[in-house]
Amino acid sequence: MKRIIATENAPKAVAAYSQAVEMNGMLFISGQVPLDPATGKLVDGGIEEQTLQVMKNIGAILEAAGYSYADVVKSTCFLNDIANFKAMNDVYGQFYPENKPARSAFAVKDLPLGALVEIETIAMK
């Protein structure tokens, strides 16, 4: 059975998507941009601060669904500039000290609201 996940501790979905969808022991988290859930605005700072906020948003959704970072099996990272890869990776890696998930990363032309990074995540139980 499909279960829609929504939490006030992560940015609200602002278009035709859910924060996450769980089905058959798999959790699919929509791409998260660095919005502060309290203000709905992009966080101040550069790629490190934005990646940290994205990872916090992902953590809030994982928690709301009853998952943790340890359950993450795949992430896809979108960067507005591939030159930001190392700095993004340094922050991202802090959330996966062991048993890192599979991952891909791409430079894209633009991200919503002028964000520097967006990350989507899949977790499994």
Textual characterization of the structure:
The structure is a single chain. This protein has 125 residues and is α+β, with helices and mostly antiparallel strands. The protein has one domain: 60s Ribosomal Protein L30, Chain: A, CATH 3.30.1330.40. The protein is 22% helix and 29% strand. It contains 2 helices and 6 strands. It has a 6-stranded mixed β-sheet, with helices on one face. A hairpin with a 2-residue loop joins strand 2 and strand 3. It starts with a strand and ends with a strand. The model has no long low-confidence stretch (mean pLDDT 96).
Can you summarize this structure?
This protein is an alpha+beta fold and 125 residues long. Helix content is 22%, strand content 29%. Helix 1 runs parallel beside helix 2.
The helix count comes to 2
What is the residue-averaged pLDDT? 96
Helix content: 10-25%
CATH topology: 60s Ribosomal Protein L30, Chain: A
Order of helices and strands: EEEHEHEE
Number of domains: 1
Instruction: Determine the strand fraction and express it as a percent band.
Output: 25-35%
Q: Which term fits the overall shape?
A: globular
Query: What is the correct CATH architecture?
Result: 2-Layer Sandwich
- Give unreliable regions as ranges: none
CATH superfamily: RutC-like
Determine and state the CATH class. Answer: Alpha Beta
Strand order of the largest sheet: 1-2-3-6-4-5
| Tally of strands | 6
SS-derived structural category: alpha+beta
Beginning-to-end CA distance, first to last residue: 15 Å
Cα Rg:
13 Å
**Main sheet attributes: strand count, strand direction, barrel closure:** 6 strands, mixed
